[in-house]
Amino acid sequence: LKEEMVFHEASTLGSLWPVGYAGIWFFPLLQVISDFDMTLSRFGCNGRRCPTSHNILDTSRVISEDGKKKLKDLLHHYYPIEIDPNRTLEEKRPLMVEWWTKAHELLVQQKIHKSDIAEIVRESEAMLRYRLGVVVLSFGHGVDTMELRAVCLSVPCAQGILTHFKGPLIHTYNKNNSVLQGSGYFQQLSTRTSIILLGDSMGDLTMADGVPSVENILKIGFLNDKVEERRKKYLDSYDIVLESDETLDVVNGILRYLLGLELHLQSLVGGEGA
Ligand SMILES: Nc1ccn([C@@H]2O[C@H](COP(=O)(O)O)[C@@H](O)[C@H]2O)c(=O)n1
């Protein structure tokens, strides 16, 4: 069964639950909605920060020294705002748009070749917490949902060169159905009324807004940075808070538990897959 759970590539919008899985009770009712950066990917390793999707590009060999400096200055200015527990989300939203917009403008100026991207990602220090063997709706942004083995750069390219970023802009604090409009994603999964939501910021809490007929939602928050200052807010908002945990062990434990229940129920009625 574990093998059955390692199937499609993660994080493609519109993907369905693993083909061939015979579950009949819990799993057809379940969807996982996850943030990508610092949630599926790691925040740190051996005492060092791991890069975000943006950081991978920002610090790579395809960016000029001047470009790198400007992108770094933006990070140093806006990241403290992003994680400031004393600012409201309303205050943060326009500033995040400002950050993403300025960063994207700088990236476009760099004339990045699409063909360089996969190698840049391979060369980077980005790491997944775990090779999650299930299909997830993953909220990425800008440099868009980047798998670590091969990047799908969701940006239009002219002759393979980055020309601009496609909208809608998804940043840390606007992740909800408004940015998925027209994708039909939530409609496709409308029978999956139980949700496991994974995030690392207060902005990730709204990722399931717009899912029709939610019956159960379990929100799991990774508290990676400024743990002391932000603990209370996270505990008030997430059902489970994982502090400085670079694994997906808790999530996998929950999925395994559900799978165990599923198999048990199937065996009681002599169902398929028992
Ligand atoms: N130009 C940028 C913009 C954002 N970031 C970082 O990416 C992270 C994205 O995390 P989410 O939880 O929103 O998926 C965010 O924490 C920003 O710090 C960046 O590095 N460069």
Automatic annotation (TrEMBL):
Catalytic activity: CMP + H2O = cytidine + phosphate; a ribonucleoside 5'-phosphate + H2O = a ribonucleoside + phosphate; N(7)-methyl-GMP + H2O = N(7)-methylguanosine + phosphate
Record's keyword terms, sorted: Cytoplasm, Hydrolase, Magnesium, Membrane, Metal-binding, Nucleotide metabolism, Nucleotide-binding, Transmembrane, Transmembrane helix
GO cellular component: cytoplasm
BP term (GO), one: nucleotide metabolic process
Principal localisation: cytoplasm
Compartments where located: Cytoplasm
Protein name as catalogued: 5'-nucleotidase, cytosolic IIIB
Organism expressing this protein natively: Zonotrichia albicollis
